[in-house]
Design a protein that fits this description.
The structure is a single chain. The model has no long low-confidence stretch (mean pLDDT 93). By secondary structure, the protein is an alpha+beta fold. The strands form 3 sheets. A 4-stranded antiparallel β-sheet has the order 3-6-5-4. Helices cover 30% and strands 20% of the residues. The termini are far apart.
């Protein structure tokens, strides 16, 4: 494939650097080790990977509460009833994404004072003069999103706490030119000390 003009490669934060590297664009040391001919030695490809860090706490709720647990478990009767209701009325359990409430959260100045110097530095740089900029995103989810075989049958909800602006960074590099081969991936979660304090704070909140 050849191009006479600018090509925009858009395959997401995960897919794009892998495609570039398999095409010969990336750090020469990585490409040579993977057996890929180097077309452009660009060491930054695959570095600075960044993603939101998320904690999920699970709670048992009353069996009379409406949650999506039976649907996600694959209960045949529930699947049929829910899907028929949605096809007929456009309403019901699957008319929702399961997020019952969400919020954007910031600690108070008094709380920031208890969150350690690493986060306090980030607070001064990015948040203190921007009162509409959230530190954390919180959500209430009307189900357990993991493997239901790990829990007793029942109804559950989860509280999610996601760091909006993480400092931690990871990396993503190919191991070979095979597009089906697993990459060398380091998510980098909590690699920066500043990211831990707001996660702990949100859990306590």
């Amino acid at each position: 494939m050849k191009a006479r003009k600018l090509v925009v490669l858009a395959s997401g934060a995960f897919g794009t650097p892998l495609i570039l590297q398999r095409s010969g664009v990336g750090a020469s040391s990585i490409l040579e080790k993977a057996g890929v001919p180097v077309r452009v030695d660009l060491p930054g490809v695959g570095l600075e990977y960044q993603d939101h860090q998320l904690t999920l706490e699970t709670y048992k709720v009353d069996d009379n509460e409406d949650t999506m647990d039976d649907y996600l478990r694959g209960d045949v009767g529930v699947l049929q009833n829910v899907e028929e209701e949605y096809a007929r009325t456009g309403k019901g359990l699957v008319a929702s994404n399961g997020v019952d409430a969400c919020m954007k959260c910031r600690p108070t100045e008094a709380e920031v004072a208890q969150m350690g110097p690493a986060f306090q530095k980030v607070w001064q740089q990015y948040f203190v003069n921007k009162p509409d900029k959230p530190v954390m995103f919180g959500a209430i989810l009307s189900s357990f999103l993991g493997d239901h075989s790990l829990l007793p049958p029942g109804r559950y909800c989860m509280l999610a706490g996601m760091l909006e602006h993480p400092k931690s960074k990871g990396s993503l590099h190919i191991r070979s030119g095979d597009p089906f081969a697993a990459p060398d991936f380091e998510a980098g979660y909590l690699a920066d000390e500043a990211d831990l304090a707001p996660q702990v704070w949100m859990y306590k909140v």
